[in-house]
Write a structure and sequence with these properties.
heterodimer, A: alpha+beta, two-stranded parallel sheet, 8 helices, B: two-stranded antiparallel sheet, 10 helices, 2 strands, about 65% helix, globular
């Protein structure tokens, strides 16, 4: 090695080329070897988020629970149906913009097509301890439960508002914004309003028992129901 | 020279205390601010950096005599970048939730000054074993500060440690107590202040040696 002229142009170029080729093959090998496991993780994480929107949190085997509760099909479709405690639920996926980056979530709706069953929100890069509480603070998500979605005229009225900003809007439509995270809360507000408005027809069809995105009856018979309602414990509330 | 000679011991323990990359050399601060709001990501980040410094040091040390001088920084960067990509992929495959929390900061290990600093200052002149010790020492020195800051920020900012509640529920204002979590602690600015306090204490304790 010592006899090589390591400063020559040819040596430098060949060295760089060989190094890059070796590294490229190595990285391609690692990436393809681990891809399957990574995709599984992403899918499992998505399933956990959808289950959280159905108020099923911290279950041991999210995969099995998901298959049990939610109708089969593509994970990433915009509306899903599920059966929780023998009750049909419609899950609407919503997407929007927070303060620093994208936010998204799922809103599950009761069979009446009017009230919220549960929600889960997630974010790309909201401020920890403030905007990030839309994901971390379960009490914010739980505050949506049993809120009314549509007003008397059939427009989406469900809103996330700061205390004192409700105006004439009845409390049954209002969820209190996260303190100190007004812009993120506004983002959540816009996101759920736009998302629910977009799928208002699907929600109506679901309430009417029609088949919009809803699986056939035979498929329902295959899915079992949960024995008892899931009550979040104190520890879970703090997560 | 034996593997665990006195000189090698000094190579390993130096960065843990008197030559700590964060407290003394003030390197790698930006990631220290970003990932320390809770303890778990701080530990994973510290371990990732330790693994990457150790192995990039060994690799560069092994090929140091073949590296063309004019492109040595590029060669170092390629080695570090390759290792970081591998670590990032492994984290995504096996500790997915942590990799979500660390988000971009694993990728940014490439720009961590500790790595390039050690490669250029140590691995280019020393053998693989010494370089390995130097890498592990510097990584752990970095991890130690991250863990200290992470513990303080998680307890004071969230009232938990590794996710387990530390402050009793009854102490909180919501439940009639007097305590409230310090939201400031969850912000990166607070990490800067804590790191500064750490450096202050470190310098005060090590006054003699610094003279």
């Amino acid at each position: 090695m010592a006899k090589l002229n390591t400063n020559g142009n040819v040596y430098t170029i060949v060295y760089a080329a060989v190094m890059v080729i070796i590294v490229a093959f190595l990285l391609a090998f690692v990436a393809s070897a681990l891809k399957e496991t990574q995709d599984k993780n992403v899918a499992l994480d998505t399933k956990k988020q959808i289950l959280a929107a159905l108020n099923i949190r911290d279950c041991e085997d999210a995969d099995a629970k998901y298959n049990e509760v939610v109708a089969p099909g593509d994970l990433n479709r915009d509306t899903l149906t599920a059966v929780v405690d023998g009750q049909e639920k419609l899950i609407v996926r919503v997407k929007g913009a927070g303060l620093w980056g994208g936010i998204w979530g799922w809103v599950s709706i009761n069979k009446d097509g009017k009230t919220v069953f549960g929600t889960f929100f997630n974010h790309e890069s909201e401020t920890a301890g403030l905007g990030a509480r839309i994901k971390d603070d379960q009490s914010f998500q739980d505050a949506f439960q049993n809120k009314q979605i549509f007003d008397a005229d059939g427009n989406v009225a469900l809103s996330v508002l700061k205390k004192g900003k409700e105006g004439n809007l009845s409390q049954e439509y209002v969820v209190e914004a996260v303190t100190g995270a007004t812009l993120t809360s506004n983002g959540v507000n816009d996101m759920i309003q736009a998302g629910l408005k977009k799928y208002a027809d699907v929600i109506k069809a679901f309430a009417g028992g029609e088949t919009a995105n809803i699986p056939e009856v035979e498929e329902y018979e295959k899915v079992a129901t949960i024995d008892k309602p899931i009550e979040p414990t104190v520890e879970e509330m703090e997560d | 020279m034996s593997l665990f000679s006195k000189e090698n011991g000094a190579v390993f323990t130096g960065p843990l205390n008197l030559n700590n990359p964060i407290a003394v050399q003030v390197l790698g601060i930006c990631s220290a601010l970003a990932v320390t709001s809770q303890l778990k990501p701080a530990i994973v980040m510290g371990l990732s950096v330790t693994v990457i410094t150790a192995f990039s040091n060994v690799i560069i040390s092994l090929i140091r005599k073949t590296i063309p001088n004019r492109i040595r920084i590029i060669v170092q960067l390629v080695v570090v970048a390759a290792l970081v990509t591998i670590v990032s992929n492994i984290l995504k495959a096996y500790v997915y939730d942590v990799s979500v929390q660390l988000s971009v900061y694993v990728g940014l290990i490439i720009t961590n000054c500790i790595l390039m600093g050690r490669l250029e200052a140590f691995a280019m002149q020393n053998g693989p074993w010494e370089s390995f010790l130097d890498g592990v020492g510097n990584g752990l020195g970095y991890a130690f500060v991250l863990v200290v800051v992470g513990i303080l920020r998680e307890i004071l900012g969230f009232g938990t440690l590794l996710g387990f509640p530390i402050i009793p529920d009854s102490a909180y204002m919501d439940n009639g107590g007097l305590y409230i979590n310090n939201g400031m602690m969850t912000m990166p600015a607070m990490a800067l202040i804590l790191v500064a306090c750490f450096i202050w204490v470190h310098r005060a304790v090590n006054k003699e040696e610094n003279k």
